[in-house]
Each structure stands twice: as structure tokens, then as C-alpha cells.
Amino acid sequence: xxxxxxxxxxxxxxxxxxxxxxxxxxxxxxxxxxxxxxxxxxxxxxxxxxxxxxxxxxxxxxxxxxxxxxxxxxxxxxxxxxxxxxxxxxxxxxxxxxxxxxxxxxxxxxxxxxxxxxxxxxxxxxxxxxxxxxxxxxxxxxxxxxxxxxxxxxxxxxxxxxxxxxxxxxxxxxxxxxxxxxxxxxxxxxxxxxxxxxxxxxxxxxxxxxxxxxxxxxxxxxxxxxxxxxxxxxxxxxxxxxxxxxxxxxxxxxxxxxxxxxxxxxxxxxxxxxxxxxxxxxxxxxxxxxxxxxxxxxxxxxxxxxxxxxxxxxxxxxxxxxxxxxxxxxxxxxxxxxxxxxxxxxxxxxxxxxxxxxxxxxxxxxxxxxxxxxxxxxxxxxxxxxxxxxxxxxxxxxxxxxxxxxxxxxxxxxxxxxxxxxxxxxxxxxxxxxxxxxxxxxxxxxxxxxxxxxxxxxxxxxxxxxxxxx
Amino acid sequence: xxxxxxxxxxxxxxxxxxxxxxxxxxxxxxxxxxxxxxxxxxxxxxxxxxxxxxxxxxxxxxxxxxxxxxxxxxxxxxxxxxxxxxxxxxxxxxxxxxxxxxxxxxxxxxxxxxxxxxxxxxxxxxxxxxxxxxxxxxxxxxxxxxxxxxxxxxxxxxxxxxxxxxxxxxxxxxxxxxxxxxxxxxxxxxxxxxxxxxxxxxxxxxxxxxxxxxxxxxxxxxxxxxxxxxxxxxxxxxxxxxxxxxxxxxxxxxxxxxxxxxxxxxxxxxxxxxxxxxxxxxxxxxxxxxxxxxxxxxxxxxxxxxxxxxxxxxxxxxxxxxxxxxxxxxxxxxxxxxxxxxxxxxxxxxxxxxxxxxxxxxxxxxxxxxxxxxxxxxxxxxxxx
Lengths: 470, 385
Description:
heterodimer
């Protein structure tokens, strides 16, 4: 039976081409070079295609991420065969898979969203339909349509991997490809559509004058709670969901959900646990902005506006994703020598510190090389675009090119695969609900609450000590 | 179980617990009403900027461009809202190479020798080399402040864009003569945007020595343009924050990034005796509510009352819309502005929503190419006080 890429990521062995940190440094150097070259070609406002209009570039960026998730996580590289994945030259393989992802991307955006949905269902997905409205310029017709399509992408980038990470592909995990892939695609796309209609559609419904009372709930139901009618309230928590899915999958190794023995219990706990963690981040990041930038003021624009604050919640979350993936892709998910909870804690701390540094460095310097402007709350600038662009290229390098050039793919033997599984299982098994574990859990929870309040106390002082925008 | 095992189990539990405790507190506390106890009480500074008797504003031009579709077509073709404004190949910085392929140096090389005296000739060069010169309007306003003594002091806020249009407007409102007679004592630039700043040579044609106030954050091209336009007077770079100017008048510079690669905006506050605060803006990219909140926190003004606004409020300059603008329409009532003299980048759509929401938007006459009576148009005047 042809397995295509099922289990390929877990069962491949990436062998360093050189000793020490050289492979990571070389691969990261190549990554950044490609990032900057492609940024210039596709996104940079000074560059060739200038897709950072902003929403056009943003839309393609977000959906390209999902295309790769679909190809790798949902379809397990189908229809590319396992033998080809293991033996093809990484450059050739990277080019073919990347082109395939871009081809699907174009079909989806031009064919499905703009062509099908935009012409036969919801006009706001198609710029040409929008241009028929009086007063709508071609530019904003394209921007509005791109905004709608990328809002859908935000949801899909959470739910598509969540079904694999949290639900472990159930109940279709034993199906062959492409049946499994299409099944998961259908359910995640269906759920994405439902979430879209209750989160983003009301935003689109009041994007026009008069408000579209007949087609969407206006004003949106979240207005009083979120202090804004903008759908950015949802963008924030949905982006946090996307980030948490990948934290759970990479640096957390699905801990602590993997302690739950019952399959469906574990799956539901993980799926809804991701949402709860994301909501906690969502509210905390908003609070963090209140503590540092000051209280939000409804109706104003930019940095003090609640709608921008909620959007910035998602932007803050994305700064966590980048170091987490770096740690996982280029540093072998270091450390691995401790117990799983301690490993997870150390990685999380590294990720948080790196994210804070990345945030500061981004806002201090990005305008010097991305063709953007200095400042935090430029209404047309979104740090999610360069961050996700970087993440996309990391995925190309890691998923499609086996971390070339620093690493090379070596097939694991059956024994090595079995040993990996046994080792991972043993790490889970060694966590037992002993009295000491329970005491530690309680003491840790108290410490966690204390750390929270220490963070709340320290944040304004920390922010006052740095000059984010020189 | 050995002590080591117990310790290890405790550590596993503790690290897990820290995460759970932290996340739990984050989720339960962060958006609860209890969080507000962490917000410091911000004392109002109540800076005394003095008082004036009245402020009268003449709208020289609010039509920055005449066809929105043309401007947005240019923006779309050049690569969107983040492209450097000097690269669009808009007048006066045209090099004949087409949309999105311009540069300050190329454009200036063609007209520098004609500035500021021969702006008609310079404009002809622009027409030949630039993209859509017929669409270049501009924003400019005459501010007449009546001091408590009855003495009137005049200031120019911005200097338009297209040389031909700006000159026509200056002549229509008598600004040319006021400048030539040195009746206008300073030119304040709200920000570096093309439609507010690039008509500078028209002002300098009539008064090359006028003192210019620019907000902190001008890019090198903008600073060079002031020199290349033939300015012979003093240039004052106004730092971020509150800057009192004359009794009853202050400017405030907001350090904010703006579309088309511009940074920083300077707006004006006037404290009108027995009436309250009047806010005058070019584009108000900082947002009218932040502008008002800043005044509340920084300035002492009569009756603690927001009396009036004049200028572009930068809500839907391109007739675009976004739900966050509805937040503004809904919230503006909390500030109680008695008179709203808006125009320009406020957007006709927004002005209509203001009217529908019951705000006192002062109607205009829709003359001299202004398109709608819903707000103050070209040549219209408004008095505060």
C-alpha cells in the first residue's frame, strides 16, 4: 500500500551535514536571504510586485500557509509518493512542492473565493462585483475582497491543523489518502465556514453604508463586550488559536493533553484546551496593552482604539510562533534531557523571551529594511505579514526541503522509529498522578498565579524602560 | 519511592501547575473589571495656553484631489498605500517614466530652477512629466486668530498640492496679497503628505521669507523640498507634544506613521474665551478622539468644553469604510462638540453618518469644485467665538 507522506515528518531523520551549530546557522542564513529576496519581489512597497497593499499580500501570505498545512498535515503530501519524498533532491523537491502549493493557492483564491463564492453567493469575495457598487473604487474593491478572504484564512489556519493536532485525524485516521485528506478538509472547511459566518461576516456586513441589516447582524453581537463593532475582536482570539495549535504541536509535544488515556477525552480536551488557552492569551495580551500603552478609547484610531488593540493581540501572538518554530525546526526542540513538563517549561520560557526580543527588534528596526514605516499602529501595516511570510518559508525549508542546506534526510530504520515511539511514550508514562505530583501541581498553580501578578506589576515598568520607537 | 523520585514528581507537577495557574489567571482576571485597579490615575496637566477672543477659518481648499477613482487607481497601480509618495510620479516630482517610477531627485531636477517665482512654468513641466496632474488639488486653510486685545493674527495651515490649483485658490481668497503684504506671519504644515505640502512653492512665490513650522518626522526629501522651493525664512521643526504659540493658540505634534510613507502630524488647539476649545486639523491622522483626549489631558480650556472642530478628520478620505469608523460615529457624542466644521479627508460618507447621528455638522455651499453641501467646501468660512 502506498503511504504517500503519512508519518513522513516523524519518521524521517534529519542528519546534520556539519557538526555543532553550523547547520542551524547556515540554514537560518539561507532562510533569511530567501526571505529578503522574496519579500522584495512579492511584498515590499519599494520592490517588484508590491503586493503589500496591504491586504492583497496579506491574503496570499495567509492562504499560502494553509495550503502547506493542507498538503502536509491533512493530505500527507498526497499525491507525492513516499519514495519520491525520501529520495528527491531537496532543492528539486522544494521547488515542486512549493509550486504545487502556489498552484492550489491560486485555484482556491481565484477559482473558489473570487470566482465561485464571489459570483454566486457573497459579492464581497469578488472585487468585480464590489466595483458595481456606487462609490467603490477598484483599489478598495480589491482590498475589501482580500480582507474577507484573508479573514476566512485566519480561521482555517487554526482549524485545519487543529483537527490533526487535537483530534488526531479521528475518526478518519485509518483511511487511505486521499480519502482521509478530503474528509478532514471537508470537516475543517465546514467548521471554518460556520465560524466565519458568526465572527467575520457581521464585520463585512457593516463595511458598507447602509449597514446590511438583511444579511448580517448589525451592530454585531460582540459590540458591548469587545468595545468595538470591528471583527478584529475575533481576529485576536482566532490568531491566538492558530499560534497555540503550533505551540501544542511543537514545543509542548501535546503536553499535558497527551496524559489523558481515553482517546476521545484527550481529543476533545486538546481541541477545547487550545481554545481556552488562546482565550487566556487573547485577554491577557489586551490587558498587557492597557498596562503599557494605556487604556483603550473607543472611537479613536490606531494605538488607542479597541479594534486595533484586538488586532494587535493576534500580532503579539504571532511573535510567539516564530521562535517556537525556530526552536523546533532548527534546534531539535531543545532541551530534551529533562522530563516532559520541565522540557516544555524551559522551551516556553525561551520562546517567551525570544518573542519579546523579536517584538522589540521588529518595531525598532523593521522599517529600515522592509520598506515599511516606523511606529506601532500604522493602520495599513501588519507585522503578521512579514512574520507569516517568514513562517511560510520556514515551512518550505522544513517540510519540503528537509532543512536544506544544513541537514540532509536519512531514512530511519524500523528499529529507530520504534525506539522513538517508545521513548516518547516512556516520557508520557513517567508522569504519574503521585501525591508529590499533586502537591507540586497545587504549589505550581499558586506560583503561576503569583507570576501572573508579578508580570502585571512589572509590565508597565519594563515598557517604560524601553524605547520601542526611537 | 526515593526522595529523588519524589522531588522529580514534585517538579513535574510544579512546572505543569505554573503553566495552569498562569493561564488560569490570564484567562479569568485579564479582562475582568478587577483589572482596572491596575490602571494609574492620570492627572490632567491643565497647561495654560492662554485665551483668544475668536478663531476664524477660511477654507482655501479642501479638495485634495478631484477624482477619487483616479487617485486610487494611481495608488493601486503603484503598489498600494505604503509606497513612498515621492515615487508615485505625481506632480511636481515627475520624471516621465510612469506610475510608481518617480523620484524626488528626478522630478526636482526638472523644476528647481523655476521655483518659487515661475510656478506657472514649473507646473507646465509637471504636466508634461507627471501622472495625472489634472487631479492635483490640495488642502490649505487660513487661520485668523483674534487676540483678547482685538488684534488679528493670521496663519496659514498647509499649502495645497497642484501649483495651478493652489495659486487659483490663493487668488480667489486673497491669500496671495496677504502673503505679499506679510500679513500672514507663519505657515504651519500639518504633515508631509503631497496634498498638504507639495504646493509650498505657491506660498513662497508670494512670501519666500515666511516662517515655516513642520512637525518632527519629515523625511529627507521633504526637508530638501523646503530648500529647493526657494524658501529663505526660518524653518522650525516642532517636537512631539504640546507647543504653545501665541496666547490661546498651541500646536500639538503626534508621532504617528501615516500612509504613503509619511511620519508625524501637527494639529492646532485654540482656547476661545467663554466658549471652550477649538481643534483645527489638517488630516487628523491621530484620530479626532485621540486629539480631543489629548487636549483633555494636557490643556486647560474655557468651561472645560469642546467647542468646535475644523478640518479633515481622516475617517474615509477615499470614500472607503470600515466598522472601526462606526466606533467613531457612535462615540463622538461623548465629547459634545458644539460645531463640527469638517471636510476633506473626513469623507462625504462620514459627514452624512455624522448628520444622521445628530451631530451639528456645519453645512457648506459646495462651490469651487467641492462636491457636497454636507460639509464645508472651498471658499466657505467658519467662526468660533
